[in-house]
Predict the structure.
Amino acid sequence: QVQLVESGGGLVQAGGSLRLSCTASGRTFSSYAMGWFRQAPDKEREFVAAISRSGRQTYYADSVKGRFTIARDNAKNTLYLQMNSLKPEDTASYYCAAGGTVRAIPTEYRYWGQGTQVTVSS
């Protein structure tokens, strides 16, 4: 298994930027495809972005394309989500997840972090 811990969340004004990090321990980080998901109050967890084991392939939800960038540094066992041009509707708890294959469906990921809160004010 792998343990995941997110960091980097906070309060930011609309139009601002944040970079989320997810550090991994346990099994080899590079063995897993990784994803970012988010969940707002009273809403289901939704897909944000995903990246393959090597980092060669990335995928984004339509709502964040052009604004968010997913990246990984396997040497540092770290996953990143650079979030630019933030909007109030981006407000949610953000979770990183590890799985065997890049997917857009939360149930396809085996391991999850505890989440980090992102709040975007208008």
